[in-house]
C-alpha cells in the first residue's frame, strides 16, 4: 500500500510547533510494510488541502492519512473536505453527538456546551469512526473508488493514542512485508569517501536499498530490505552487509558508545589545551595515561586543530580542520579524538 501523510495546520508552517505527528505515522507505516514516498504540510486553507489530496492520489497513492483540522471551529475542515473530495455525504451521528456533549460538559464542568462543538459529530456516510477517548474530536476512515482517507486529530497526545488503539489495529488487515533496516557505523572516513568505496555495491543492488547519512560523529550506512519476518530479512541482507563491512573494515565502529569502551581501558587523560575552547566534561584532566596536546592555527576557511597523542611508548599526531570556528564543531572534534585514542591504546 502506498501511503501519503498530510499534516494540516498553519502553525506547522510558521514553525510554532514541531511536526512530531509525521514521524510517528511514518514509523507506523514502516511497521505495517506500507510505502511512504511523500509527506506534506499544508496550512488551514480549503483549496490547498484539496489540491494536496488530488496530487497524492494522482501520483499513485492508495491511502492518505491526515492530522489536524477535526475540531469545532470554522477553519477545522479536514473531515468535510476529505468527504467532499471522495463525494461522500456528511451525516449527523447521534451517538457521536452524545460523546461530544458528555466530554465537553465534563472537561468544562458546564451543563451545556455551545452548538459549534457538535460539528465534531458529523461523519461521512459508512465511514469507520476512530474513537478518541482523550479528546473531543474522533477520527475516521473513509473510502470510495479504491481511495482511502484517514482523518486523525492534530494534538500529538490524541493522535498517538488513536493510532495505537484504533488505527493500527484497523490497518492490520492491510499489513504487507515490512522494511527491516541494518546500520553499519563508520568513523575516520568522510561520507563522500565511503560512498566511493562502496559505489559498485550500491549500484548493483536491486532488492536492498543502501543510503549514507553523515553526522558529526559517524557516517552511517543504512541497508533496508522488505521481508515478511526478521529471519528472512537477515538472509536477504547478509551477503551485501558482509561485502560493505569488508570494504570499510578499517573504519568500522563496533560499539557506538566508543567513549565508554575507551574509558574502560584508561582512567582519564593528561590534557594540555592551548586552544580557545574547552573539551566537554567527558575528557577528565586527571593525570591519566593518555596525553593530549591541542594547538590551534588559523585558516581562511576556518581553524585547524593540531593534535598530539601519547600513550606509553606510542605517539601520533594529526590535524582536524574545522570550518569557521573549532568551537562550533566540538562534537566532531571530540569524536575524532576518541577514534584516534581508541586506535592508539589497542
From TrEMBL:
* Pfam families the UniProt entry points to: CinA_KH (PF18146), MoCF_biosynth (PF00994)
Can you give the residue ranges of the MoaB/Mog domain?
4-174
Alphabetical list of Gene3D superfamilies matching this protein: 3.30.70.2860, MoaB/Mog-like domain
Fetch the SUPFAM superfamilies from UniProt. Answer: Molybdenum cofactor biosynthesis proteins (SSF53218)
Q: What InterPro entries does this protein's entry cite?
A: CinA, CinA_KH, MoaB/Mog-like_dom_sf, MoaB/Mog_dom
Q: Show the SMART domains listed in the entry.
A: MoCF_biosynth (SM00852)
Mind telling me which PANTHER family this protein's record contains?
NICOTINAMIDE-NUCLEOTIDE AMIDOHYDROLASE PNCC (PTHR13939), NMN AMIDOHYDROLASE-LIKE PROTEIN YFAY (PTHR13939:SF0)
Query: What is the protein name for this chain?
Result: MoaB/Mog domain-containing protein
Amino acid at each position: 500500500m502506498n501511503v501519503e501523510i498530510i499534516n494540516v495546520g498553519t502553525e506547522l508552517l510558521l514553525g510554532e510547533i514541531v511536526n512530531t505527528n509525521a514521524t510517528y505515522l511514518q514509523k507506523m507505516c514502516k511497521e505495517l510494510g506500507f510505502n511512504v514516498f511523500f509527506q506534506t504540510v499544508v496550512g488551514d486553507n480549503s483549496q490547498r488541502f484539496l489540491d494536496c489530496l488530488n496530487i497524492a492520489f494522482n501520483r499513485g497513492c492508495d491511502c492518505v492519512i491526515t492530522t489536524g483540522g477535526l475540531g469545532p471551529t470554522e477553519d477545522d475542515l479536514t473531515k468535510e473536505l476529505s468527504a467532499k473530495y471522495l463525494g461522500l455525504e456528511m451525516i449527523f451521528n447521534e451517538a457521536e453527538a452524545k460523546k461530544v456533549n458528555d466530554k465537553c460538559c465534563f472537561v468544562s464542568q458546564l451543563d451545556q456546551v455551545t452548538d459549534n462543538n457538535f460539528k465534531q459529530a458529523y461523519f461521512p456516510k459508512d465511514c469507520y469512526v476512530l474513537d478518541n477517548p482523550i479528546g473531543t474530536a474522533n477520527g475516521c476512515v473513509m473510502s470510495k473508488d479504491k481511495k482511502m482517507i484517514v482523518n486523525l486529530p492534530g494534538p500529538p497526545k490524541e493522535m498517538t493514542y488513536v493510532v495505537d488503539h484504533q488505527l493500527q489495529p484497523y490497518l492490520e488487515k492491510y499489513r504487507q512485508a515490512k522494511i527491516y533496516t541494518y546500520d553499519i557505523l563508520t568513523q575516520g572516513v568522510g561520507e563522500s569517501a565511503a560512498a566511493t568505496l562502496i559505489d559498485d555495491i550500491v549500484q548493483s543492488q536491486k532488492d536492498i536499498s543502501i543510503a549514507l547519512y553523515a553526522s558529526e560523529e559517524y557516517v552511517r550506512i543504512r541497508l533496508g530490505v522488505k521481508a515478511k519476518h526478521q529471519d528472512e530479512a537477515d538472509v536477504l541482507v547478509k551477503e551485501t552487509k558482509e561485502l560493505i563491512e569488508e570494504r570499510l573494515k578499517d573504519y568500522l565502529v563496533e560499539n557506538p558508545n566508543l567513549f565508554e569502551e575507551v574509558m574502560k581501558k584508561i582512567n582519564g587523560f593528561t590534557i594540555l589545551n592551548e586552544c580557545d575552547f574547552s573539551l566537554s566534561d567527558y575528557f577528565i584532566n586527571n593525570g591519566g595515561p593518555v596525553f593530549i596536546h591541542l594547538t590551534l592555527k588559523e585558516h581562511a576557511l576556518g581553524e585547524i586543530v593540531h593534535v598530539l597523542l601519547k600513550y606509553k611508548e606510542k605517539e601520533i599526531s594529526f590535524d582536524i580542520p574545522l570550518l569557521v570556528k573549532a568551537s562550533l564543531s566540538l562534537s566532531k572534534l571530540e569524536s575524532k579524538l576518541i577514534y584516534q585514542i581508541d586506535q592508539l591504546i589497542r
